[in-house]
């Protein structure tokens, strides 16, 4: 081959010198596609992992709120029972209040009776002390005259 033939084959689109370049481009393209595929695969796995974590958090939140909902329902049931019991006991509470008022009145009467009995006791002591403190009447010197004798 002459030098002009080599130039012609290098310039020709179907020449062998051109075949080495597409193989390098193909290899570089394949590496780029493989790298891109690995990157996309890693992104998909990361997104899947994030979605799995979000699903786990969502499930945990659902369980927590279901528990809180059960507690709230239990509290409502207990509050309803307490309200029913209170309504049933209103009449008894009114009776107890009435009894308390009556007892308060009786305590006042008892205190008044205590004061009155103390006054009577003091008066009785005063009368007794006055009766024993005064001198006895003088004895009569003579015999008392009998009626009808004479």
UniProtKB/TrEMBL annotation:
InterPro entries documented for this protein: BLOC1_su2 (IPR019269)
Cellular component aspect of the GO annotation: BLOC-1 complex; BORC complex; gamma-tubulin complex
BP-aspect Gene Ontology terms: endosomal transport; lysosome localization
GO molecular function: gamma-tubulin binding
Pfam families tied to this protein: BLOC1_2
Region (Disordered): 1-28, 127-150
PANTHER family: BIOGENESIS OF LYSOSOME-RELATED ORGANELLES COMPLEX 1 SUBUNIT 2
Similarity comment: Belongs to the BLOC1S2 family.
Protein name per its UniProtKB record: Biogenesis of lysosome- organelles complex 1 subunit 2
Organism the protein comes from: Coemansia javaensis
């Amino acid at each position: 081959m002459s030098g002009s033939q080599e130039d012609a084959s290098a310039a020709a689109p179907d020449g062998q010198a051109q075949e080495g370049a597409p193989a390098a481009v193909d290899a570089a393209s394949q590496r780029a596609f493989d790298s891109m595929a690995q990157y996309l695969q890693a992104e998909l796995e990361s997104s899947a992992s994030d979605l799995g974590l979000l699903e786990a958090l969502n499930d945990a939140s659902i369980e927590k709120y279901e528990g809180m909902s059960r507690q709230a329902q239990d509290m409502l049931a207990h509050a309803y029972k307490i309200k029913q019991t209170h309504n049933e006991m209103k009449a008894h509470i009114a009776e107890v209040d009435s009894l308390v008022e009556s007892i308060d009145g009786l305590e006042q009467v008892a205190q008044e009776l205590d004061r009155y009995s103390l006054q009577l006791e003091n008066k009785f002591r005063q009368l007794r002390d006055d009766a024993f403190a005064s001198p006895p009447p003088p004895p009569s010197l003579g015999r008392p005259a009998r009626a009808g004798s004479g």
